[in-house]
Write a structure and sequence with these properties.
Layout (H helix, E strand, L loop, with lengths): L9 E6 L4 E7 L8 E6 L10 H6 L4 E6 L19 H14 L4 E6 L1 H12 L4 E7 L31 H8 L11 H9 L9 H9 L3 E2 L3 E2 L2 E3 L6 E3 L4 H4 L19 E6 L13 H6 L17 H14 L4 E6 L6 H4 L1 H13 L1
Parallel strand pairs: 3-4, 3-5, 5-6, 6-11, 7-8, 11-12
Antiparallel strand pairs: 1-2, 2-4, 9-10
Helix pairs in contact: 2-3
């Protein structure tokens, strides 16, 4: 059995009115005057992924990583995707409240970036700064044009129907091998990091991925039929539907009256979030992997990075401080692949 908790990290359960949450902590050396950073993981992962960067933080920083519902050590509860990611962001806020942390420096990775953007919209008093790592676009995942508008009314090709069923089956079977391209270990190596990136903790990362609760109410969620290519549209349940553009839009952060400083860190070789992501079904259609693609005029790939850059440019133009750090030779996990650069940028935005 893999020991998933690194020395120096504490694991605890926090009871809130919303859920029983699994939390990892690297406590500050002294309580008085400590800065608190709260880490929020992405899809098919958990707080375990944050441990190396938590341990690397200065001793006067209290580091807290929260498992979202249906991931890690948090309880499995249904996800109402018609609320976008609010089930997740409300859960995170409930943990912050239960621990009495007050305003914290929020760090969100991938889907977790969407979660912390939503939390900023709904509970701005809890956000001292916002760090977005390899974040989902403010317009969700798939199905939108550059300006965030829907390509088709029902956002066909996005949501729960877009998951690879073999990958879902291998999560359910707790597949720890590397024999198939859809095994969690193979997906981690090909998509979570740039190909060839070594890690001494791969076994922990796989255990983190395998903690994902599967099913219609969790990952990946449900789907509905569509007359538009590729034949399905988002449902209202489960994880992937929380980021469907019919349910999710955090672009209003650009119009907030009070704007905490924002750091956006992403890898130039990110296979998951990019302007030509192979997790975007329109990109798969364009590449000939999914047949029947109707063409760029109807179903162009989503320019995810460009959309985020545009929204953050509006945030900055209206008085917010924004720092963008794009890292070469880096995939979807800058905090693992370039920890010194990530840490330096995080500490700089905290200092603001």
């Amino acid at each position: 059995m893999t020991d998933t908790i690194l020395p120096g990290i504490e694991s605890e359960t926090v009871e809130t009115p919303r859920l029983r949450a699994g939390v990892l902590r690297r406590r500050a050396s002294a309580v008085d005057g400590a800065t608190t950073v709260v880490f929020v993981h992405g899809n098919v992962s958990s707080s375990l992924f944050w441990q190396p960067i938590m341990l690397a933080l200065p001793a006067d920083v209290d580091a807290v990583a929260i498992d979202l519902r249906g991931f890690g050590a948090s309880e499995t509860l249904p996800v109402d995707a018609t609320r976008g990611v609010r089930d997740f962001s409300d859960d995170v806020a409930s943990v912050i409240d239960a621990l009495g942390l007050g305003a914290v420096h929020l760090v969100g990775w991938s889907m977790g970036g969407g979660v912390v953007m939503q939390l900023l919209l709904d509970r701005p008093e809890l956000v001292a700064s916002l760090t977005l790592q390899s974040t989902v676009s403010p317009y969700g995942f798939g199905g939108t044009a550059a300006d965030g508008s829907l390509l088709v009314e029902d956002a066909a090709g996005t949501g729960g129907g877009g998951a690879n069923p073999d990958f879902v089956a291998r999560l359910e079977a707790a597949d720890r091998t590397e024999e198939a391209g859809a095994s969690p270990l193979a997906v981690y190596r090909s998509s979570y990091v740039a190909p060839g990136f070594p890690s001494a903790h791969e076994a922990i990362w796989v255990e983190s991925m395998l903690s994902t609760a599967t099913g219609l109410d969790n990952y990946p969620g449900d789907a509905t039929e569509s007359s538009n290519w590729p034949g399905f549209a988002p449902g209202g349940r489960g994880v992937l539907n929380t980021m469907a553009p019919t349910n999710f839009d955090t672009s209003a952060i650009a119009e907030l009256a009070v704007k905490p400083p924002v750091l956006w860190v992403h890898g130039a070789q990110d296979a998951i979030v990019g302007d030509a992501s192979f997790f975007d079904l329109n990109q798969l259609g364009k590449a000939g992997i999914i047949p029947g693609w109707p063409g760029d005029e109807i179903a162009p790939p989503q320019p995810m990075v460009s959309q985020t850059r545009a929204v953050l440019a509006r945030y900055a133009a209206d008085g917010g401080a924004v720092t963008e750090l794009e890292l070469e030779n880096c995939g979807h996990s800058p905090h693992l692949e370039h920890p010194e650069a990530f840490l330096g940028a995080l500490l700089a935005v905290i200092a603001e």
